[in-house]
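Hey, I'm writing a tutorial for new members on how sequence and structure tokens pair up, and I'd like a real worked example in the thread rather than a made-up one. If someone can provide the structure for the chain below, I'll link this post from the tutorial.
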Amino acid sequence: MANSIFISGTQSLSVCNRVSPNGLGFVGSDFNGNQFSKLGLSRTSYKIKTLAPICSISTSRPASQPRFIQHKQEAFWFYRFLSIVYDHVINPGHWTEDMRDDALEPADLNDRNLTVVDVGGGTGFTTLGIVEHVDAKNVTILDQSPHQLAKAKEKEPLKECKIIEGDAEDLPFSTDYADRYVSAGSIEYWPDPQRGIREAYRVLKPGGKACLIGPVHPTFWLSRFFADVWMLFPKEEEYIEWFEKAGFTDVQLKKIGPKWYRGVRRHGLIMGCSVTGVKSTPGDSPLQLGPKAEDVTKPVNPFVFMLRFLLGATAATYYVLVPIYMWVKDQVVPEGEPL
């Protein structure tokens, strides 16, 4: 596990126990972008000041890369239209009831009196799985899209749930509030995933568990292209790193997917893993973060917005076709042979 440190003249530096068997190692860069490293240092060679952990995830998909349905206003309008057909077109190909039950199993929804928040709950499809185990009056559905929430309000089993509009990166719940935090199919639209997971830690009670269900990054080149253009498809190791940096312990990742994919993950999955972690101590997360990645109060250029929206929606169309393609292959390719 690397700790962030600061030495004069550096832009970023990590001290790593695993770099060299002979001791510590430094890996970093200066402000001119020059890379440097020093391996096999004695643990007493340098006086090092350890700082509070900050959000600096290494990723092959930098923040500057244009993901066209990533920011909150883009996601708002994307779901303005998608909410009309979400339960009938999107869920059957990407988020089935069997997958939902499988993904929620690690959340330990084992008491009807648990207090549960479903963040990014949308139309309430995931919430329907939650209220099978927890009384609806103890469940709160939060989403930034009133159009998605309108669909949730129509579902009879969710009539007693609290349904509120809100921001996953700035939750309107007090610290140490909930027994369980659930979020399914929402992280891909968060401008700053680490901030949202930090909020999950904050709102949970000590001993509470977070269960976050989201996409996995494709390995097939064409699927990877459309995924990266469309929205955030994290790598599995990124989920674990985000959880651990937020302060969660006992972090576990469970792979999920439609049955007709037969475990194939090279095209990525909109719902591909269920990640859980436990909050062990009361209070806020130990992770310190800077300003939000997105200021939703800033005016948006309507022409740029429309262009980004149309390009993102076009990329999303690819992921409407992928599950159909995989279903056809499942029907054609004999059992036991690779898809």
